[in-house]
Amino acid sequence: MITPIIMAGGVGSRFWPLSRKDRPKQFLNLVDKNRSMIQATVDRISKLTAHDNIFIATSQDYVEKMQEHLPEIPVDNLTVEPMRKNTAASIGLASIYIEQKSPEGIMVVLPSDHLIIDEASFLDTVEAAVEVADNGDNLVTIGIEATHPETGYGYINYDKKYIQVNGHEVFEVKAFTEKPNREKAERFLEAGTYLWNSGIFVWKVSTIRKMFKLYMPKLDKSLEKMKEAIGTAEEAEIIRAEFEKLDDISIDYGIMEKAKDIYVIPGSFGWDDIGSWPALERVQKRDKQGNVISGHHIGIDTKNTIVHGNGKIITTMGLEDIVIVDTDDAILICDKKKAQEVKEIRNLLADRGLDECL
Amino acid sequence: MITPIIMAGGVGSRFWPLSRKDRPKQFLNLVDKNRSMIQATVDRISKLTAHDNIFIATSQDYVEKMQEHLPEIPVDNLTVEPMRKNTAASIGLASIYIEQKSPEGIMVVLPSDHLIIDEASFLDTVEAAVEVADNGDNLVTIGIEATHPETGYGYINYDKKYIQVNGHEVFEVKAFTEKPNREKAERFLEAGTYLWNSGIFVWKVSTIRKMFKLYMPKLDKSLEKMKEAIGTAEEAEIIRAEFEKLDDISIDYGIMEKAKDIYVIPGSFGWDDIGSWPALERVQKRDKQGNVISGHHIGIDTKNTIVHGNGKIITTMGLEDIVIVDTDDAILICDKKKAQEVKEIRNLLADRGLDECL
Q1: CA–CA gap between residue A17 and residue A309 (Å, rounded)
Q2: Are the beta carbons of A345 and B314 separated by less than 8 Å?
Q3: B108 and B56 co-located in one domain
């Protein structure tokens, strides 16, 4: 049985001022006007399993919003982290709830805020990964074919030998690597044996529990305690106490970089992590002047500019490569090259105690 | 008796989106946060005469707003033009009302939306002009010492011979010239016998009536009919009928370029016509990065940029030489070099029937 776990605890501050503490990226309708990123993610994976089997890893802050966006997901399937502790802890917590409900479950770990264009191809790739994961204690990941020397993603280096599963090439992973510098990224692209790390992982719940025991024994011990507490009056209290002790470690660093028997399946289903405002240029329709416009805009001599309106008419003259975002209480206007650094603006707002704008 | 007439019929579209059809530039607090341009103009000239003697030339559309801004001015002193017909008609209409109330009045024609920094020097210069105007049928104007070859203003060419009045040099005017091209403006500046035309004129009301009779007989005839109608039941009707017939001619073209006995007094009281958004850089405090900020702003790597906020926090990153104006229903973001062309945006809005934004 496929038991997806959607990772939805992120704050997505790079879409400020549209994204906020209480409205992170997964809740935004960035690509599809009618569906938030997380709604699209659930819709997509629900083609492979019932809503009752879909789990959402999130934090207490987002539980209410999650129920608004995903009324079809049972509230018990929200695995609520008492505090942010990176992906190893999130996946660990989810694994014990899934284990309890479906000991034979096959976890499909999915980011909640990525764009996938070709749904059929994506589902087909996931099914191949599920088959590989089910055949032993394999850790499987889906890697994205790199199109340029991106320095914003981690990379997966794989061995050229492969097996075929349902028409998909399945490679053995040689190494997970952190975000490279430009030079390294260019070497990766040239080598032809690197894929982008999409954050999509597939494994049996029993397998990942074994891996935690093997490579993250401290986390495993906490998970055991938490699992025993599920259903008791002390559940929340014990989870909080154990969570507090956990290290802030990603699943990549804690497991994937250490484990053996890791396989990667290349995915070519049109993927984008929509990491910051300029990503919209890759995935949205651009007008003749190269502008990406959402909302009411009138421009003269305006090129390659991203406008995200909020009701007011936004007028521009003589602009190029600018990002403009209007919201109820804040406006961002920045050079496109700076759009990745919008966190710095948030830091300044925080410094000045303007928490209501974060 | 000094009877100022403040020219306040203009639409000032170059400050869109802050200025609107129903809120032109003279009603904006562009320079002084607490006083609109027209309030500052009235305050200034009221040092020389009672509020009861100050007249305001405006149009029906602005009467209500004028009373809000200038409760101290008697409503009868608003000389209301039934339609826009340029400055000769405005001054003509004002002249008959002033003539009726103060036949000995000395008109001081003042733009309603210019900045004057040194009030004492300005008033002193006006008093000298009044003295010259009172001494015969002289037309007197105050010219601004040119600091650069500006192509946006008309120029006044004067004869080098002068007389002294109360410490002011009074020159005879050789010619009024329209806005020059760059080359011509540079020649004017070099010659040293040209001043900028400030639109400030001083003359006895009886003198300007004589000039209308001499140089604009058609206007004079209409003024006579309108004057006879004042106080009758047909006043509004006759003024409208006569106004409709009038030519669209400026006082410069209709009188000043033709009349003799015109004198100019150089003014050096810190003058600016605040013609468009970038003018604020000349008259407002700039921060260390050269930005002129009004409202709530947080910027990173933002230089020589003008921000006019409206409550929302405006955040900027990696911008240079940009104008940003937020209002309740429209936002303008434009290259500073384009700020003079904001009318083009208004034209596009009008084309699309977005009259509520004009």
Answers
A1: 11
A2: no
A3: yes
The upper half-sphere exposure of residue A135, i.e. CA atoms within 13 Å in the direction of its Cβ, equals 12
Task: Kindly report the length of chain A.
Answer: 358
Cβ neighbours of B318 in A, within 8 Å: 334-335, 337-338
Residue B80 sits in the same domain as residue B227: yes
Nearest chain B residue to A300 by CA: give it. Answer: B345
Collect all residues of chain B within an 8 Å Cβ-Cβ radius of residue A331: 312-315, 324, 326, 331
Q: Which chain B residues are within 8 Å of A318, Cβ to Cβ? A: 334-335, 337-338
- Write the pLDDT tens digit of every residue in B220-268: 999 999 999 999 999 999 999 999 999 999 999 999 999 998 999 999 9
Whole-model pTM: value is 0.90
Number of compact structural domains in chain B = 2
What ipTM score was computed for the predicted complex, to two decimals? 0.88
Q: Which residues of B touch A350 (CB under 8 A)?
A: none
- CATH classification of the domain holding B259: 3.90.550.10
Structural domain ending residue among the three candidates B254, B272, B290: B272
Say whether A333 and B324 touch across the interface (CB within 8 A). yes
Q: For residue range A10-50, what is the model confidence (pLDDT) as tens digits?
A: 877 899 999 999 899 999 999 888 999 999 999 999 999 99
Same domain, A318 and A206: no
Final residue of a domain: which of B272, B305, B329? B272
Best probe of the A interface among B296, B313, B346, B355, by most A CBs < 10 A, is: B313
- Give the chain A residue nearest B333 (alpha carbons): A316
Q: Which domain holds residue A292?
A: 277-357
Which pLDDT value is given to residue A53?
98
Nearest residue to A6 (alpha-carbon basis) of A106, A112, A95: A112
Give the sign of the dihedral formed by CA B218, CA B53, CA B270, CA B342: negative
DSSP H or E segment with residue A100: helix A86-101
